[in-house]
Design brief:
The complex is a heterodimer.
Chain A (H helix, E strand, L loop, with lengths): L5 E14 L5 E15 L4 E5 L6 H9 L6 E6 L2 E2 L8 E4 L3 H4 L6 H11 L4 H14 L16 H13 L5 E5 L7 H18 L3 E5 L2 H5 L4 E6 L2 E7 H6 L4 H8 L6 H6 L13 H17 L1
Parallel strand pairs in A: 3-8, 3-9, 6-7, 7-8
Antiparallel strand pairs in A: 1-2, 1-4, 4-5, 9-10
Helix pairs in contact in A: 3-4, 3-5, 4-5, 5-6, 9-11
Chain B lengths: L5 E12 L2 E13 L4 E5 L6 H9 L7 E10 L2 E2 L5 H7 L4 E4 L13 H16 L5 H14 L5 H6 L7 H13 L5 E5 L7 H18 L2 E6 L2 H7 L2 E6 L2 E7 H6 L4 H9 L17
Parallel strand pairs in B: 3-8, 3-9, 6-7, 7-8
Antiparallel strand pairs in B: 1-2, 1-4, 4-5, 9-10
Helix pairs in contact in B: 3-4, 4-6, 6-7
Classes of the chains: A alpha/beta, B alpha/beta.
Chain lengths: 292, 281
Amino acid sequence: MSAPVLELRGLSKAFRVRHGFMGRETREIRAVNDVSLTIGRGEVYGLAGESGSGKSTIARMIMGLTEPTAGTILIDGAPVAHAGQRPVQMVFQNPGASLNPRRTVAQSITVPLAVQGVGAADSAARVAELLEMVELPRHFAGRYPHELSGGQKQRVAIARALATTPKLLILDEPTSALDVSVQAKVMDLLADLGRDLGLTYLFISHDLSLMRNFADRVGILYLGRIVETGTADQVFAAPSHAYSRLLIASVPVMSEDEARARPTIPLIDGEIPTAEALVAHEAKQLSQGSKA
Amino acid sequence: MTAPLLSIRGLKVRFTAYGQVNEVLHGVDLDVPARGNVALVGESGSGKSVTMKAIMGLLRTPPAEITGGQILFRGQDLLTMRERERLKLRGTAMSMVFQDPMSSLNPVFTIRDQLATILKYADRRLGRDRSRAQRLARVHEVLAQVRMREPEQVAAAFPIMLSGGMRQRVLIAMALLSEPELLIADEPGTALDVTTQAQILKLLKDLVAERGLALLMITHNLGVVRETADRVYVMNKGTIVESATTGAIFAHPREEYTRDLMAAVPRLTGGHRYGTQGGRA
């Protein structure tokens, strides 16, 4: 069997933050804590978690934008190279911010090609090919971001990420800035591209309904740790960790069927508990159960 | 039958920019009954925010101009009312919960100071007489109403010391200060994590049930609508395309636009894998 496209072994990142009087004391915050996962070729791995769970820090470490404190990142079974030479690309959340407003579509797409040393003549053909892949007309090559809609901009960002034929594509909330009707089309495109080109995705999102319909396997991240992992079907049908259950139970849904399929969360003092409260509550019940 | 608390009839708004005139609302009709729980849902550019701003009197004129229609609140037309009269309603009988808890709070004043100041001016507009001690008591009272466990401590805090969910609660408390009859919530919980959003939506629902206020919620999230509202207005391109009770619209959406919108939302139970082949239609 071939090596997985991505393997994380015990990946950790701690930040030192200053606090106290005049910031004289420092404290360590473990943004990512001993995360291990593997993503096979052609697989879509969904990483779900709320703000502060560490999902963006993991993406940044894989990209080489942040140095891990501990652990290793293997791509195709080999330790990763210097940041600029990793066969990994990323599609960011807000295409309005991730595209340079002063560059045309073609210029934006050719930046990663130039870094790889592809000549100008070759790159023009490649731009046309990439635009076709993301289902944009060829003449969009000369347009500026402000002439495009949000969905079109995100298609350009996807084309740019595909330009260097990366082994792994990190999708960081790729549709959270888009309307739902546009979101559906961009997600369809990503799924089609994934199948046609055999792409491997790390899909980061807080939208669990979206993840359910896109990811093959899912990892639930809570306070820097993966608290639950499994196939999307397993995790959504029978989440085992208290936090996963709270997260899935909190999703506003469209139908009775979905509402019934959601886990039920005990109300604490008549209110929906916070994650900390629920995790503490379950731990307490567990210890009481073991004593009994 | 009693008249609705808020009734919008044939509202038309146009914007003028660089000599170009654009009508963005083409005759909007919308009713919020007393103690009603109504959602206005639409995608970006549908006109839902312009509708909300027109109700609250927050449209900047120019470039915006209300060219027709009525906005009746308790039977009085807000659009023909004298400015002084309208100011007496705004922030008191009808108040608003803003979307972004961080940019709606002043970072250099405590929660107590900000809420007490708002109450002071509301009291002044309405000619109410209240001592500072009474105002502070009211501030603590509304913070307790939004389920803050330690209202005094929250009141003494600066915005940065609170979590996103707590800040959103403070904004709701702020809107409740003068016992409004109508609460307008702009994308409540959108800036928050999903677990926190669920708590905020439950709070808004509880407030409607317990305090007898009416809620008009403006949102793009159909799931949020289904979980919170009793009645839904679907808006597209400056027009209300469909309105019905929440149960009816989710069971049998009549208009094609509504059906398409609903079909685009992914389901938590799966079954609609993305991709154009072998997946979604």
